[in-house]
Amino acid sequence: LKADITEQIKTTTDLVALEDVRIAVLGKKGSVSQLMKGLGGMAPEERQVMGPLLNALKNEVADALADQKDVLEEAELNVRLQLEQVDVSLPVTEHPSGTVHPISQVMDEIAEIFASMGFAIAEGPDLETDFNNFTALNIPEEHPARQMHDTFYLRPDAEGIRKVLRTHTSPVQVRTMLSQEPPIRIIAPGRTYRSDSDATHTPMFHQVEGLVIDKDTHLGHLKGTLETFLKAFFEVNSVTLRLRPSYFPFTEPSMEVDVQCSFGNGTVKIGDGNDWLEILGSGMVNPKVLENCNIDPAVYQGFAFGAGIDRLAMLKYGMNDLRAFFDADLRWLKHYGFSA
Ligand code: PHE
């Protein structure tokens, strides 16, 4: 009987069959269990002989079952490992990741360049007071410049105060001068708004303001700062600037700054060439503005400039339609290498 049972156990090929054998042998009605039951009806002498024999048989069968169980379980695991192999040659599923928008990237580049020249970053809100956006900057009520700015006005609040969406970053000059003692050396990048829309104008656009106030800051510092910035930004060894007389109520004298370049078919190369491109507005801070901001013009003077960030980005990356910046078209971002 023992040999027969061991043979049965060894030849099982899966755990279900093994369990069947176990029930057939050690189950309530199993062959070995039946024999054990038979002990009760035996004569004491016979029982003394058969008892230990049957117990030993039962133990050996149990051991054989456990051993076979280990063998079968290991075999099953090996089969599973085979089946669950990872095929590293399968194509990967793509998980497109977001990236930094070109405008944000250009803002970061600008901030980094000016930071290396010792400029801090200043900020102001998009919703400005009339005073900060216009009056303090020497643009009084009825001044034609207010019309020129195509201002978005908000409805007056309960106290009759009418805020504006800032038309330039210059109000941050005012905020900085009102809250900080000179020497001042800041840039203020941010959103600006004018009611205007075509291929080169969007109602919301971006500017970066620069302001330096100290006791003997002069035009040469302005020119040097802009040259250093433009060389770093456009990654060229030299830039030639042309300062053209202009007019801004908040600077005196005022200059429009052009950079020497060459226009190809649809492209612009900054550096040298026979063409000029207007890049920004600038000038020496008007003493009236210093006074409006509680800074003594007899002691302090300085320069300011304001540049369109979107335009700088278009020039640097060879983009031709400003509106595309704000269309959020992933294909466009990808085309300019801004998307993974
Ligand atoms: N605020 C001016 C504009 O938006 C630019 C400017 C800034 C000019 C600072 C001079 C000085 O056009």
From TrEMBL:
Which PROSITE patterns does the UniProt entry name for this protein? AA_TRNA_LIGASE_II
Keyword annotations for this protein, in alphabetical order, are: Aminoacyl-tRNA synthetase, ATP-binding, Coiled coil, Cytoplasm, Ligase, Magnesium, Metal-binding, Nucleotide-binding, Protein biosynthesis
Catalytic activity annotation: tRNA(Phe) + L-phenylalanine + ATP = L-phenylalanyl-tRNA(Phe) + AMP + diphosphate + H(+)
Write down the required cofactor(s).
Answer: Mg(2+)
InterPro entries given in the database record? aa-tRNA-synth_II (IPR006195), aa-tRNA-synth_II/BPL/LPL (IPR045864), Phe-tRNA-synth_IIc_asu (IPR004529), Phe-tRNA_ligase_II_N (IPR004188), Phe_tRNA_ligase_alpha1_bac (IPR022911), Phenylalanyl-tRNA_Synthase (IPR002319), tRNA-bd_arm (IPR010978)
Q: Please list the coiled coil stretches.
A: 54-85
Where in the cell does this protein reside?
Cytoplasm
Binding note for cofactor: Binds 2 magnesium ions per tetramer.
What is the annotated quaternary arrangement, including any partners? Answer: Tetramer of two alpha and two beta subunits.
Check the record and name the NCBIfam families matching this protein.
Answer: pheS
Protein name in UniProt: Phenylalanine--tRNA ligase alpha subunit
Which lineage is the organism of this entry classified under, starting from the top rank? Answer: Bacteria, Pseudomonadati, Pseudomonadota, Alphaproteobacteria, Kordiimonadales
Identify the coding gene. pheS
